[in-house]
Amino acid sequence: MSIDTRLGIVGVGAMGGAIARGLVSSGALAADRLVVFDADAEHAASLARELGAQAAESARELASGDVECVLLAVKPQVLPGVAADLADCVAGKLVISIAAGITTETLAGLMGKARIVRVMPNLPIAVGSGARAVCAGTSATAEDVELVRSMFATLGSAHVMTEHQLDVAGAVSGCGPAYFALMVDELTRSGIRAGLPAAACREMALATMRGVAEQLLAGDVHPRAYIERVTSPGGTTAAALRELEPFLMEGVDAAVDAALERTRELAGE
Q1: Quick one: the chain helix, strand, coil %, rounded to 5?
Q2: pTM score > 0.90 for this model?
Q3: Can you give the C-alpha Rg of the chain in angstroms?
């Protein structure tokens, strides 16, 4: 799918850079329709050369140019300052924010004449996978929302949600890559402790995670039913799950709650 817009990305670190690479490499956005800026000018210039895009010398230059859509991929702690500085440059333009905790209402207050859409992505966007949540501000049109949803759907799944749901999605899928990576790391450490070679153990854990994900994504089995397929009565998996499940359930609930609480703190609530 081709995205019919000229896009500027302010902040091309891990996430902004992954979005830029994903959109261009997938063919969704022509490289000559992309402009990038980063506080690290050398990094932005390098990415622009890599993709065949253009690098702006400042965020204001980018936003004041002929881009129709500006994606703010900066940290939540600095987003308010960046947004306020660009307010007069983005009047009438579509602005996408990927910052956790900064609401569309707050962004509208900082950039009153821009059309605001929030997106909560996650890092697997770098490999054309993962999940995104999309939420419209009050000034955004249905066409804006569909453009943003379509843009991010080219890099994995994308779902339109309410703002509260988007914050929950951030705590689940936005933080989720770290949860799964932690599980792989802990399985690897346990396997090494019990006698497996480190490299082989890590590869086995990763291959298992990929295989389970592919089978569950096929959609023919619920995760709980999948667990039952793997678990023989009185077997080793049953013994392992009896130890793991109570701690995992409590830990995941606590992790999501903690992420949501931090989201509220970032929003100033």
Answers
A1: 60, 15, 30
A2: no
A3: 21
DSSP assignment string, 242-264: HHHHHHHHHHHHHHHHHHHHHHH
Instruction: Give pLDDT, residue 127.
Output: 82
Is the distance from CB of 132 to CB of 122 less than 8 angstroms?
yes
Please check whether residues 108 and 221 belong to one and the same domain: no
**Taking the alpha carbons of 66, 69, 73, 77 in that order, is the dihedral positive or negative?**
positive
In whole angstroms, what is the distance from residue 78 CA to residue 16 CA? Answer: 15
Last residue of a domain, one of 168, 201, 225: 168
pLDDT at 22 over 80: yes
For residues 134 and 145, the answer to whether their CB atoms sit within 8 Å is yes
Q: Is residue 1 part of a domain?
A: no
Q: Are 62 and 56 in contact (CB under 8 A)?
A: yes
Give residue-wise pLDDT tens across range 57-84: 999 999 999 999 999 999 999 999 999 9
Range of the domain at 193: 176-266
Q: pLDDT digit string (tens) for 163-177? A: 999 999 999 999 999
pLDDT above 90 for 3: no
Are 148 and 218 part of one and the same domain? no
* Sequence-ordered list of residues with C-beta below 8 angstroms from that of 210, at least 6 positions apart, any chain: none
CB atoms within 10 A of CB 113: 12
